[in-house]
Design goal:
33% helix, globular, Rossmann fold
């Protein structure tokens, strides 16, 4: 019997969506031959508020993914109107697929290190596999990722959940924090797609603090 098509979930605030996010998604699509489901956070529950409203972040994400193969948006939290724990999201997704479907949740190295502090963290690996994105590709061998295998393909015997991998890809050296700083100073970041940069410039986003709560 053929293995069910794997599901890959990429969550985040995407504040704003930038070329680093897209580089990760493209590596997942090209290397693993999967589609990537972007699940934007409605409002972050464990960190500072986003720089712009949920509607602006969704609009920018939609612009950034136009024409990108194998990438789609799941507005689950936006439909709920609230942010839910990752375990809740994964349980929802798991309920919509076969119990043997490989489900992967993408997260950064820092988030992976903090995983024990997440709500119901013990349930996450029961529901999905993890794909960890190294903070620094060159230094990954000396980090907590040094003993985590690289995921280069998803075979027919892939477990539905419970495994941890890391992804190798040509990393774009940027961050949403540095981009927001550039924008706040009146600049324009080359790490944004043309359409997203135009949207931010047209509306004057990130120039002054915006109330998002």
């Amino acid at each position: 019997m053929r293995q069910p098509q794997p599901e890959v979930v990429f969550g985040g605030t995407f504040d704003p969506i930038h070329q680093g996010h897209l580089a990760i998604a493209k590596a997942l699509v090209q290397q693993l031959k999967v589609s990537v489901r972007f699940v934007p956070v409605f409002k972050p529950g464990h960190r500072q508020p986003c720089g712009v409203s949920p509607d602006h972040r969704m609009a920018m994400l939609t612009l950034a993914l136009e024409g990108e193969e194998g990438m789609l948006i799941d507005a689950y939290e936006f439909r709920l109107g609230e942010t839910v724990p990752t375990s809740h999201l994964l349980r929802h997704l798991r309920s919509q697929m076969s119990s043997v479907t490989p489900l992967f949740f993408v997260l950064g190295e820092d988030a992976f290190a903090d995983l024990p502090n997440w709500v119901a963290s013990g349930q996450i690996l029961e529901l999905a596999n993890l794909i960890v994105i190294p903070r620094n590709i060159e230094k990954a061998q000396g980090s907590i990722l040094s003993k985590i295998p690289h995921l280069t393909a998803i075979d027919d015997n892939m477990a539905a959940s419970g495994r941890v991998f890391q992804l190798s890809f040509p990393k774009v050296e940027t961050s949403a924090t540095s981009i927001r700083a550039q924008l706040a100073a009146g600049g324009r970041s080359s790490a944004l797609s043309q359409s997203v940069g135009d949207y931010i410039e047209r509306l004057g986003l990130y120039r002054t603090p915006e109330k998002t709560e």
